[in-house]
Amino acid sequence: MEKIVSFGIIDSYQKKLKENLVVDVAIVGGGPSGLIAAKYLAQAGKKVALFERKLAPGGGMWSGAMMFNQIVVQEDAISILDNVNISYKPYEEGYYVCDSVEATAALIFSAKKAGATIFNCFSIEDVVLQKGSVAGVVVNWAPVHREGMYVDPLVIMAKTVLDSTGHSCEVTSVLARKNEVKLKTQTGGIMGERSLSIEEGERTTIENTKEIFPGLYVSGMAANAVSGNFRMGPIFGGMLMSGKKVAGLINDRLSKRDGC
Ligand code: 48F
User: Fold this and answer.
1) In a domain, 13, yes or no
2) What residue owns the CA closest to ligand 1's atom 12?
3) When you count CB atoms within 10 A of the terminal residue's CB, does the N or C end of the chain come out lower?
4) What is the pTM of this model?
5) What spacing in Å lies between the alpha carbon of 120 and ligand 1's midpoint?
6) What's the first-to-final CA gap in the chain, in angstroms?
7) How far is the centre of ligand 1, averaged over its atoms, from the C-alpha of 222 (Å)?
8) pLDDT tens for each residue of 40-59
9) How much distance in Å is there from the Cα of 8 to the middle of ligand 1?
């Protein structure tokens, strides 16, 4: 039995990893925007691998606000909640409240069930840059980074990469820091997150969700941080709508590129 358990885990994990060394979309960060993007892209038939640094994907959604584990979602995003079976209750006109643990678990489950592969404890440390385009991500075990160990990484090749790393916008930041590239922002660089303004932040999160550099898209709080817009705190409709929007953009791009 001991042999079966260890062999079973190692054989099946190796197979899973090998099958995801070349993908259509590599999603970095398993917060709400990355998870919902993974679900819609996988549902559209794309090969999607999502890489999350922490043990549990879910990003900032588990904790609600100040660990009061409830979240607020506005009317515009209710159809997404319905789509992934998250229950909600009306609060004020146009605003609903949900249990953040149920909401986060549902997003993870629906991304996986739609066909996305989720790798936890993976930290993305760099991108692959080929012919002026992002063509993949450079990956390592998260504990390797945390311990400050020097261990060479592996590479995942991807037709498109999504930076959904939240406030730190890590993928776009490393691209900008290491290479003399011009991002599709007002300054051409990382503009940085601004202070809290909920309405503005929710609106611009969706507006800023786009291809920020050839082969690299941004969603969620990373989109606002890259483009110099406001944070919004524990309202989550913008994150979900951003994830849905980026899935549509990437899907269109890949379908055109692959001629289907
Ligand atoms: O921060 P996060 O939840 O991103 P999001 O989808 O949602 C933002 C909201 O949670 C909240 C908010 C508004 O309502 O402002 O903050 O934009 O999730 C980002 C995930 O990316 C992971 C990180 O651990 C988190 O789970 N992450 C960050 N950098 C890396 C990474 C990296 N280099 N490699 C792998 N994962």
Assistant:
1) no
2) 233
3) N
4) 0.98
5) 13
6) 47
7) 8
8) 999 999 999 999 999 999 99
9) 31
